[in-house]
Amino acid sequence: MHRNLYSALLYLLTPLVLLKLLWRSLKAPDYRLRWGERFGHFPPPQQRGGIWIHAVSVGEMQAAAPMIRTLLERHPELPMIVTTTTPTGSRRVREMFGTDVFHVYAPYDLPAAVKRFLLTTRPRLAVIMETEIWPNLFHYCERYNIPTIIANARLSERSAKGYSTFEKLTKETLGKVTLLAAQGKRDASRFATLGMPIRSTQVTGSIKFDIKLPASLQEQAEVMRRNLGTDRPVWIAASTHEREDEMVLDAFAKMRKVQPNLLLVLVPRHPERFSRAAELASQTGYRVCLRSEHRACPHETDVFIGDTMGELPLFYAASDVAFVGGSLIPHGGHNPLEAAALGVPVVTGPHVFNFEEISQLLLTRGASRQVKNGDELVAVVLDWLEDANQREAVGAIGKTVIDENRGALQKLIQLIEEQLERRQTQR
């Protein structure tokens, strides 16, 4: 009954959803394309009966990539279906896997769209990354006997409160999930409060600790650093959002009074904001260089804009100190582990609820610092820039924390393979 009301409301809201796509397409034209896929209309894959992996956007896709690569290696006989909901996530799938996987947008959670998607692809297992609780998706997976795993599952206190508003529907939906692989005990506890059966829950840790950096990255970073300037300090502000860029540029102005030679590497979270960030920096009076121009960065450059996709690890590796964005504003923060894995000291703002346990672990161990505002950000970054020994020590702790917490990927792969074996036995 609750799901039927939810579905009816979703159908009523569909025109507004399409208007939102059009609105977003003003900044990112790709949102205007491939609407049919969002309603389950697309040519079927050459092979059916594979593993379906859903990752919302770039962040989830980055986390899922090692798992997908492992499954492709260990089960080459199984086709892999990978879905996203954003154009940037879609681009990342194609950049990383090309034709090795079948890729379309995930269907909207409308009964007809979900049924069309499942009947067209006929997966034998669905792996949904992080926090995607969709009533119709899980309902029809259960109806068609498709086991479902919520993998690398995380649930902030804020999100838990949101889902609890629809308590009965959420409990009904979680009751249809075959297995929940939670990042941490707090995540598992919050899911349990919402109605996820404890018998179907396991704490595996975060697969984001299982970072595999390219062997050539350090060499590429040395080239990048020579381009940025080896005789000047470099501070990166990564995955920044609207309103946060202004805060970062304001902090940068204050830092330059102490470190006049400081270079800011500014990497906005979303590609549609690359040009806006460059414009903001130029309007502030800074000399700007764009990564997409692929030219030598002039020594008089003040702000280097990382306006390319997939190069964030390279930018981190070429920097001295990293600020991880989405955290000075109440967005919830982004993944700090890439910077930590590269031995770069990490500073975040106060809003890190998307990475609560990871952020707390790094803080507790001394691999990162958390600030309340722009003035505190200035103080921490300058402190690290002026003390190379402290930077090196903090960076070394970050690497150690990463190494100590690896292993979640292997646990998750094992759980996936167990479900595949059970499904095979049932046939």
Automatic annotation (TrEMBL):
Top EC class for this record: transferase
GO molecular function, one term: Kdo transferase activity
Pathway(s) per entry: Bacterial outer membrane biogenesis; LPS core biosynthesis
Keyword Lyase: no
Boundaries of every 3-deoxy-D-manno-octulosonic-acid transferase N-terminal domain copy: 34-211
Any one GO CC term of the record: plasma membrane
Record EC number: 2.4.99.12
Protein name per UniProt: 3-deoxy-D-manno-octulosonic acid transferase
Family classification: Belongs to the glycosyltransferase group 1 family. Glycosyltransferase 30 subfamily.
Database matches in Pfam families: Glycos_transf_1 (PF00534), Glycos_transf_N (PF04413)
Reaction catalysed by this enzyme: lipid IVA (E. coli) + CMP-3-deoxy-beta-D-manno-octulosonate = alpha-Kdo-(2->6)-lipid IVA (E. coli) + CMP + H(+)
Marked site: Transition state stabilizer: 130, 208
Domain Glycosyl transferase family: 246-399
Domain of life: Bacteria
Cellular compartment(s): Cell inner membrane; Cell membrane
InterPro entries: Glyco_trans_1 (IPR001296), Glycos_transf_N (IPR007507), Glycos_transf_N_sf (IPR038107), Kdotransferase (IPR039901)
Active site residues of this protein: 60
Membrane-topology annotation of the record: Single-pass membrane protein
Function: Involved in lipopolysaccharide (LPS) biosynthesis. Catalyzes the transfer of 3-deoxy-D-manno-octulosonate (Kdo) residue(s) from CMP-Kdo to lipid IV(A), the tetraacyldisaccharide-1,4'-bisphosphate precursor of lipid A.
Biological process terms in GO annotation: lipid A biosynthetic process; lipopolysaccharide core region biosynthetic process
Keywords: Cell inner membrane, Cell membrane, Lipopolysaccharide biosynthesis, Membrane, Signal-anchor, Transferase, Transmembrane
